[in-house]
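step: validate -> pass
step: tokenize input -> pass
step: predict -> running
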Amino acid sequence: MIKLKDLLLENDDIFSSLSVVGCSKLHQLPRGLKVKIIEAASSGIRVIPDDLECDRLNLDSAAYITELPLFKNYIETINLLSAVRFRILPVKFTCGTLNICGTPVEHIPADVKIKYLKASHCPRLVSIGNNCEIDNLILITSQVESIPTDIKCSNYLNIKHTPFVNKLLKEHGTRDKVMEELKRSYPYVNEFGI
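step: predict -> pass
step: emit ->
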């Protein structure tokens, strides 16, 4: 099966879940799909429609997904853990929790609004765009070299084991001095993990 029928659910009922786990020949989710939970781990999904309505989208280890659309509807949780070809988030992307750990994503675009972004162990992630609102941002062992000073992290920014924090440690010598510099330079970040 390459594609499920568009408007699979032609009425206003929202079913609890759709599981296409391991469906390697399924390339696309249908347009107009309304379901609470979509389980598509280890699937062959390549295309996700922008009009998808769900609370949770699990694409863990989905081998072919390379990008997400700018969704028309808010999605609470999106899991792309170890999606080995995932590279692109659109500008102004919005969601609740986004897990992109272990993906080859290279850049977090400008103007994203995400409550919780897990981007640890992303070996190609080197930059973050301007004017981002990310309540909790976890970048442990990513390759981020700089972070815009206008980033808004109302809760927590974890930058342990990144080139960014390593450079600050070389410049300022001690963790205490690095924390002072971070608090001075990043007025919209509540707490740091270094």
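step: describe -> The helical segments are 163-172, 175-185.
step: cleanup -> pass
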